[in-house]
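Support case: user asked for a sample of complex input and structure output to validate their parser. Sending the pair below.
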Amino acid sequence: MKLARDTWLIFQRQTLLLLRNPVWIFVGVFQPVMYLLLFAPLLKPALAPMGATSDAEVYRVFVPGLLVLIAIFGGLFQGFGLIAELRAGVIERSRVTPVSRLALLLGRSMRDVVSLLVQAVIITVLALPFGLRVHVADLLLAYLLLALIALMTSAVSYGVALLVKSEDALAPLMNTVAQPVLLLSGILLPLAFAPAWLRRVADWNPFSWAVDGTRALFAGDVGNDAVWQGLLITVMLAALAVVWAARAFARSVR
Amino acid sequence: MIETKGLRKSFRSRQGRETKTVDAVRGVDLVVEPGEIFGFLGPNGAGKTTTLRMLATLIAPDGGEATVAGADLRKDPAEVRRRIGYVAQGGSTWDEVTAREELVLHARMYGIGKAEAHARAARALAAFQLTEYADRKCKTYSGGQRRRVDIALGIIHEPKIVFLDEPTTGLDPQSRAHMWDEIRRLRAEGMTVFITTHYLDEADALCDRISIMDHGRIVAEGTPAELKREISGDVVTVGLSRAATPTAAQLLDTQPYVAKLETLDEGGLRLFVDEGATAIPQILRTLDGSSIDLTSIELHRPSLDDVFLTKTGRSLRES
């Protein structure tokens, strides 16, 4: 099938580029590990009123949030690489070939999803000594949710990058999107602390649903409504983002 | 190989709050024959690249029609893509990847199988004398080497026609001569080559036929020899001070041996005459009679610049 083959070609090249730039691998792992080691301990007293008193319970709340955080930010900033590629002329060169436009996007986004999953596994493993315990089946479902988030945010980032075509415009744009999304998703602290009005605003943030879903999965509560709601919302948004960004690849000029 | 009728494209550009429409290409008709090197000559901003990008399916025309390599540009751009190669102006390679990896990937994006892609990459590297550097990263290449990789990429799928957008811009004279040889070799292999250039000598030396483009229109078309022949006789350039130029122009314009006269912006005149050898003494006598001092006088055969000048009223070098 042409789409699968083309996607695989682009994915291979993008992965090669990532591996040839080991700095990014280091940064990608180092940052979340710092959160895990330096921020999570602060949370223990903060989460105590919610009944999370042991290390295991604290990490069960914090690790899923951290993973969603990486998925959102990792994805949203992928557009920078694409702008460099635009400038190098490789996008134009790809666009004169019959290669599938959807594959130009999916090959890149798949690379982002895979690198996110690698990060997620490393963080999960590093959290085990702190007492984090999670069922493998629940964990895999949580990873699926994370993969969909990364697919969505990286597709959005690529689409926007093709529109604005400059790092100077992309950076503030992505930051402006990411900040409220982050604050309103209960990633760092659960929104259970929030006043009612803030929680109502957060209900409109799809990532807030995704965080709830991921937390439920880490808590072993796969039957929780938050799981299917989070998955459904994320699937729909990811599909929209992919369609939109693939169209940007089809018509982008220069 | 290519036939276009009334190809048009305009862009909207925003400056502050105002939106301006720029007509980049305003109705281009052209015919490119199989197996020729066809050149698009014109100053920067004439619409050459826009036309090329339309023919290469990168931007959609606003109007007109075109057949490229037997496929309809507007109805079947996917088929056009399969049959053409395109090499952009600014390069097309990733820094961290080797030429061989680039060639293999590019071939595979055309649907060519893995083994065949490797074989083709090896052949292309040899043909473009790149084998020695094939497994080094592209960022280590010189400008000329990188340009050769770009062109090797553009023809890796053996297209019927290849578009080269200003293939020698930014190259040193030696790499430029080398590139001309490569382009002639493509023609010898039966490929049709469509290049854009703003170098007169390049169009003259390399192209079988050229179209001169200015302000989005084609102003002249033919072989370089035909175009120059359109300007009968010789060209005499007279160097004058700016102050003396208008008087001299007035005097000479009425002389029977001057077929056409152009005033140069920097001072001086360009005269189109039937026979340079007999015209020069007469020019000297006329100017001397009115005590006009000239700084230089030069006789030459008409160049493509003269063609451009007669068609547009200004010199290609100045625009």
